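Issue: ligand-bound run for adenosine monophosphate - logging full I/O for the record.

Environment: standard queue, default settings, no custom constraints.

Inputs:
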Amino acid sequence: MKFRKIVNVYEMLEKTPARLEKTDIVANLLKETPEKLVSIVIRLLLGETFPKWMDKKIGIGTQLLIKSISKVTGIKEKEINEWVREEGDVGKAVGRAVRNKKQVSFFAEELSVEEIYDTLNRIVEFEGIRSQEKKLTYLSKLFVSADEKEAIYLSRIILEKMRTGVGEGIIRDAIAKIYSVPSEKIDRAYSLVNDWGAVAKAAKNGTIDSLQIEPFRPIRVMLAQKVRNIEEGFSVVGKPCAMEYKYDGFRMQVHKVGEDVRIFTRRLDNVTEQFPFVRDSVRRNIEGDCIVEGETVGIRGDKYLPFQQISRRIKRKYNIEEMARKIPVILHLFDIVYLNGRSLLDTPFQKRREILERIVKEDEKLVLAKQIVTDSVEEGNIFYKEALNRGNEGIMMKNLNAPYQPGSRVGYMIKLKPILETLDLVIIGAEWGEGRRAHWLATFLLACKDEEGNFVPIGKVGTGITDEMFQELTDLLKDNIIYQKGKEVVLKPELVVEVGYEEIQRSPKYESGFALRFPRVLRIREDRGPDDIDTIDRIYEIYESRG
Ligand code: AMP
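Outputs:
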C-alpha cells in the first residue's frame, strides 16, 4: 500500500474539524486497506509507531532526524535547524529541506507503508554503541524515497508528533460503522486485547464477542468511582461488600506464564525491567499462569514512601538494581483476571479473591491487599480510619458479586479518600518564563476530557511550583512540543499532573466552560496517561456537589 494514500488522508483529516467527517474518512481508508495492514494503518492514523506495551521505542530525536535529512538532501544541518525555528515545526522544516534538496536521488521507489514499517521494526532493534549510526542509515533510506509531503508526515510519525485529531473514539466509530457492530462491543473487545488490528479483524469476521484476554497483552484496567462516605459507598456496591486499604502507589498488572513474567502499568507500559525483585517474587510465589493486579508502594523501614519517589522508578533505564535496592517496593495484590488458560473476567469478585488467596504465597515483597467483608457502617468507618492511620490514601469498597469490567468505571468498585478532590489533568500548552525563569516552561495550560475524548482547556497554572518541579516539567515537556509561536508552545497532550485548587467556577474563558481558582500542581503523574484524566462530567459533579 502506497504511503501517499495515507498522506492524502492525513491532509483531509487536518482540513476538517468535524468528527463525523473524520470518522467517514477513516472508515473509507480502512475499507480499502488490506487486512494484514489494518493494524499498522490504524497506528499511523493515531500517530503511534508501536503499541506501548510492546516495549518498542523508536528512540529518534529531532537532531538525529535532521542529521539524516541533511545527509539525504545535501543541505547543512545548521540550515535545517534554522528552518525549524522559522517554521516552528520540525515536520515542515523537513518538508522544506526535501523541496530544496541539492542532490537528486535516482532509482528511488515510491514509499510504501510496508517499507516504513519494516524499517521502523529494524530501527527499534538497534541498541548500544553505534546504534545511532545504524538508525541513521535506515532512516536516510526512507527519506530518499519521500517527496515533500511524505517527508513532513514521515518525520511527524518518527518523532511521534502526529496531530490529525484522530483519537481512539474515531477509530472505534469507524470500525463500528464499516462492520455494523455496536460501538460498545468494539470498546469491550479493545479493552481486552489492546490491538486495533485484532479488533477490526474480529469485527469483520463476526467474532468480536469471542475475543478473549491473553497473557502478555495487557488489558485496560477496571476503574473506580468516587464516593464521599461509607453509606454512599454501600449504596453503590451493595451490602455486604469487601473493603480494602487504598494503597498510595501505582497500579501493576502482572502477567505470568511459567517462568516468564511481565509487568505493565495501567498505561500499559512494560516496566518489567524496572522492577526485577517484584518479577522474581511473582515467579517464585505465584502458582500457575495468571494475570494479577495490585498496587505497588515504595517503603523505607516500615513506612510507605510518597508516590513521587517511587514514580521515578517507573521510567528508570539505568542503575535499575541499585535503585531497586534503594527504594524497595511491596506489591499488594487485589485482583486476578486470568488463570491457567481461563478468563476470570466473569467470575464474581469474591471468588476471584479466593483464587488469589489460594495461588499466592505471601512474602515481604508480595502480599494480598488488606481486606475485610462487612455490611456495617460502623465497622467500615473504623477500617477507614485504620487505613488512613497506616499511611494509606483511603479505602476501596468492592461489590462481592461483580465481574471485572475492563476499561470502565462501572461502580463495581469505589474509592473513598478524605482530601479535597484533586484533578488529574493533561498539559496541552505552555509558555516560556521570563527573567530567572527564562529557561523553563513556566505557565501551563491544563485540559480535561470532554464526552468525546477531546482535550478541552480548563485553566492555566504557573504558581505553587518549586524550582525542581519547573525543571522536571520542562525536561519532560520539551519532547512534547508540537510547535512554538513566540513564547507560547503547543504540546502533545501526554503529561498528566495532579492539580489542587480552591474552587471550580463556571467560566466562558476556557472551552470546558469551567475554570479553576488558585490551581497548583501537586505532582507529576507519570503513571497516568491522557486517557486517565478527569472528565468534564466529573468536574461538573464536583462543581455541583460543592454548591
Ligand atoms: P484513583 O487512582 O484515585 O482513581 O483510585 C483508584 C486506584 O487506586 C486504582 O487504580 C489503584 O491504582 C489504586 N488502589 C490502591 N489500592 C487498591 C485496592 N486495594 N484495590 C483497587 N485499587 C487500589
